[in-house]
Amino acid sequence: MTKLTKGSCLCGSITYEVRGKLRSICACHCTQCRKTSGHYVAATKCRSEDLNIVGATIAWYRSSDTAERGFCSTCGSNLFWREFGATFTSIFAGSIDGPTGLNMDRQIHTDAKGDYYDLPDVPIGEQEPVR
Prior knowledge:
With 131 residues, the protein is mainly β. Helices cover 5% and strands 40% of the residues.
């Protein structure tokens, strides 16, 4: 049986379903993630083909030469991050409806963390290669 995970933005204009496996949570402390979220980002990811996004208010912002971020143009909820040409899409963990069953087991870009918080007690990992 394929696992089904659902999520949404704050106002409910965008909903999504993932039919498949989610990766454990990774904390990203890069400047872009901190600016878009107001803190660091905790994200899982799935195969892009397993993700179904519904809602006319989805907007994509090209945040670098290599990636874009998906958000709701009504309420501003940050929902997704994806590298151009990659087969995976990152999903901001806080947008998942209900219990996730996932654990944060790594963090990246810790050298760019804000000076107003301590790092979580989670191993520091390398940027994952995109598959």
